[in-house]
Fold these 2 entries.
Entry 1:
Amino acid sequence: MSRRGVVDGAHTTRMAEAADWLARITDPEATEQDFRGWQEWLAQDPAHASAYEEIERVWALSAYLPATPAQPSVGELALADIQQVPESTAAQAMTPVTPSLWRRVLTTSAAAIAAIAVVVTVAVVRDKHDVFETATAEQRSLRLTDGSQVVLGAETRVEVSMDEKRRSLEMNQGLAYFKVAHDKSRPFVVSGGGYAIEAVGTAFTVDTKPDRVVVTVTEGTVRVARTAGRAASDGAAPMLVHAGERALLDGSQPRCMAIDEAEDAALGWRDGRLEYMQEQLRFVIADVNRYSDRKIVFADPAIGRLEFTGTLFLEHIDEWLNTLQSTFPVTVTAQGAQRLVLQPSESAALLKALSSNDARSAEDDSQSHGC
């Protein structure tokens, strides 16, 4: 056999092994042993990691390949341009995948593209550090090398650093859901907005905005502490947030609230649904802006203090804005193609609505409790 044939044979073998590992670790039933085996295989040879990345790109690309009678080779597919994976492919990625099914996927065309694009990635952290970002109206699902699952909302940025003693994620922008693989020897800590949220084996979301962090726990318990700069200024003690609770962190005394059907409330955004209970409009608009190229701004910042209760569907933002004008004393005006302005329709009505909101908020604060 020629040297070229030997090289091609070795490459084909590595690609087949990479496809098998991809199928195993994207299976929701994957075990810690599966992930350890995957990591050991990656460490055996730098060519293994390259093959895995190549096969992962092929898998992503397969969502946009037309079905053809002749099945192209893995090597040929790997040379094609890579595109985003739609939500339908994300659903495939989270179901058990066998090598034979994986091969069939390579020649199957994608279903209709969802309104919100979803990219599914199994994250291989390079040099123990990597950065993941999403664009406007994009969501991304990650499986970290320890087996933890992360779903990034739109316009979110997360820096991942992992070593033998600690799993650290820095997130000062956006919204993310974390389902943490159990590992007592390596704390899982998400830092953002001046807070550190630590979990060992649990599930929770973190929503970071310029002046507030919201932590919603759906499983287990997380520990929330101020980071060094904030702790030094007020000496606040760490607190525990349990399943079914939401913590609002804005630099003042943290507030906790119990939430019904915590998982649905915390994860509705993954399905294009945002739910609110007496939420200030400025935070609602901040969420909406993550999913729209037309950014909404306030002509008067006071409008942002109005409180909204209800469900907002991301596929129907324009309809929601129309109802907003009948609910609050505001009007919506377009300024060019990329900007919408919320402005008061009547100053006296706005002041009255704000006065009512402030009174209700004061009452709620007096009844709120620490976590």
Entry 2:
Amino acid sequence: MLLMLWGCFAFDPSTRVDELRVMAVQSVPAEITPGSTVDINILMADPIGEGADVLVWPCTDLGEGCLEAELFADNPSLWIQSFSYEEAVTTLSFSVPMEIAGVVSQLPAELIPFTGTVMWVLACVPGECDVMSQYEQGNLELSDFLKPSKMVEGVGFGRFALAKRSLRISNRPEPEQIKNPILELDQGQELVLDVGESKELNFSYEILSLFSEAVYLSGYSSAGYIQEGPPRGFGEEEFSMEGTLSLKWIAQENPEEGFMYVILEDNKGGVTFWTAPAIVQ
């Protein structure tokens, strides 16, 4: 599950997105082989419209800092990537070092896939985080990338977002690997809501990871909000690998335009997301 560390705070309701936020991080494929290339899809929200500078990097901490800091010391650009926020979803590609294969091969079966490599995403409103200018000038302190909280010390609340997600790495054959699920809004449902009204949104899903036992659907919006409650999909009497889950979308008191962000996860580490413009009129 994606862990959002800073940049989203105790709003009422918490499903309303009204500041810079990293909503989800997805790897494609969901389970990665050492030495291969993985695409990282990053879902972000920028409801204020100030834009963001973003750094993305993996960190494999085996007790001596990020393994990648040593492997890419001579060329950190092969490890740490950057982009400027322009649209909701951005995709970056990373190579998984072969050195991790040695770690994976020594693990017992119950610890496979290896989850010790964390993908970090740091987004800052332009001009707010010194690390962004240091990146541009090539003056990075690579040791700081083990503890990213150092990079945002003194930065104001709501001016940055920091999130992380563990990657799943193994040498298992493809049929045994974790797969990302599928999520779609049921046909005929429009993301248009009148002020003061609410609407049930139905999402069809399919879980593709073998031996999954649970599914979790969460929703957020920068136009209105999603009704809070128990996690949807967990605690069901009968878990199904495919079906329909619902979210209740609620308008606030004023017309506004924004986006809907919906994230689906299974309990094996597969994740997918869905986003679209939303209007309260």
